Amino acid sequence: GAPSNGADDVVLFGWSTASGYWSTVFGGTGADVCNRVKWIDNTHVGIAGSFEQGINLGGDSHSSVGGKDAYFGVYNTTSQQWFDSMSVGTTALDEFWSFTPLSNGSVALVGTTRGNLSSSMPSLDAPDCTPTPGNNTVCTFIALVDASLQPTGITDLKSTGNVVARDIVEIGTSGKTLITGYFSKDLLWHTSV
Questions:
Q1: What is the value of pTM for the model shown?
Q2: Which of 4, 17, 66, 165 could, after both became Cys, cross-link 110 (CB 3.0–4.6 A)?
Q3: 177-183 long-range CB contacts below 8 Å, 24 or more apart?
Q4: What is the pLDDT of residues 13-35, one digit of tens each?
Q5: Angle at 65 between CA 140 and CA 107, to 5 degrees
Q6: 43 Rama class: left (phi>0) / alpha (psi -120 to 50) / beta
Q7: Which of 75, 91, 71 is nearest to 145 (CA)?
C-alpha cells in the first residue's frame, strides 16, 4: 500500500496492453484532487485537477500560490514515470476541470479561477478574474500548452455572475474546441486564443 501524505491524495490505477496493470499515487499535505483523466496516446495518461500547499509529480515540484492551484500532468504508463507537469495559480481558488489533447500535439485545458492569472502567465496577457467589490464571481479560462506543457495562449469566459466550464473536446482533428459548462447573468468572452 501507499500512505497518504495529507488530507486527500490522488491515485491513478489502470491497465494497458503495453504494460499491464500500473499505478501511481501523489499528493502533498493539503487536499489534492483529480478532476479529469484521459489517455493521450497508447502509453501516456493526462491528469488535471487542483492541489493545496504543494505536490510533486516526478521531479517537478509545484507550490501553491494561494488556496488551491490548478495542475496538469502527463504520466507514462510504460516507464511508470511522470513525463512532465505544470501548474497555474493565483492567491484565489484555481482549478483545472478538463483537457483535450489536440491533433497538433498541444493540449487545451479548461479551468476556473477567481484571481489574476497574469502572475502565473505574464508573457501571455493572461486574464484578470479578480471579483469586483460586491460581485464574487468565478470565471473560466482556457489555456493552450505545447507538447512540453509550456503555455502558448490563454483566454477567458466571464460573466456578470459565474461561468464554470466542466469539459472541453476537440472537434475531429480541426484544432477547434467545444466547451460545455454553465453560467449565470450575462456571458462575456474574449477571442485572443
A1: 0.90
A2: 165
A3: 177/100, 177/102, 177/108, 177/142, 179/110, 179/140, 179/142, 181/110, 181/140, 183/157, 183/159
A4: 888 777 788 888 888 888 899 99
A5: 45
A6: alpha
A7: 71
Secondary structure (3-state) at 34: strand
pLDDT: is 14 or 109 the higher one? 109
Evaluate whether 142 touches 109 at the Cβ level (below 8 Å).
Answer: yes
Amino acid at 186: D
Instruction: Report whether 72 contacts 96 (CB < 8 A).
Output: yes
Quick check: helix, strand or coil at residue 189? strand
* Dihedral sign (CA 113, 118, 120, 121): positive
pLDDT category of residue 1 using cuts at 50, 70 and 90: low
How big is the chain, counted in residues? Answer: 193
Cα(131)–Cα(114) distance, rounded to whole angstroms? 6
Residues 6+ apart with CB under 8 A from 104: 175
